[in-house]
Amino acid sequence: MVKLKIDDEWFDASYNECIQWLIDNNCMERLRQSNWVPQCEFYPLKDSRIGLAELYPTRVLSPILHRLDCDDILCATINEGKQNECPVAMIHDFANEGWEGSDLWNSISDWYEDTKAWQW
pTM for the complete prediction? Predict the structure, then answer.
């Protein structure tokens, strides 16, 4: 297996892009009411990135949002070939590798529009 080397710039950009979209589209209040908070309010981003990398070494995950009532984390992931999109994946943290989840959306806006993805 070849391990990808991703620098902190990619992680920061993916986080900022997703959070900025949520702010610009007035989504944060509704998400907070559904127990979603920016990952940095739950746990330091750098520590979260390291923890995800250790738990799921075959994936590149940048934590964006954390659900307070469970271990779900919405993460940006590597965009393979498509320009101007930052795909996001739902991860159930602390699951064994391979069981963490495979739900994937093309962008934060696709995830948000799919209310079944984040609202119970």
Answer: 0.84
SS3 letters across the chain: CCCCCCCHHHHHHHHHHHHHHHHHCCCHHHHHHCCEEEHHHHCCHHHHHHHHHHHCCCCCEEEEEEECCCCEEEEEECCCCCCCCCCEEEEECCCCCCCCCCCEECCHHHHHHCHHHCCC
Phi, psi of 107 (to 5 degrees): -160, 170
List own/partner pairs for 92-98 with CB under 8 A and 24 or more apart: 93/51, 93/52, 93/55, 94/55, 95/55, 95/71, 97/55, 97/56, 97/57, 97/58
Domain ranges of the chain: 1-6+40-62+77-82+93-98
| Digit-coded pLDDT (tens) for 85-94 | 789 999 988 8
Structure tokens of 2?
């070849």
- pLDDT of residue 2 exceeding 50: no
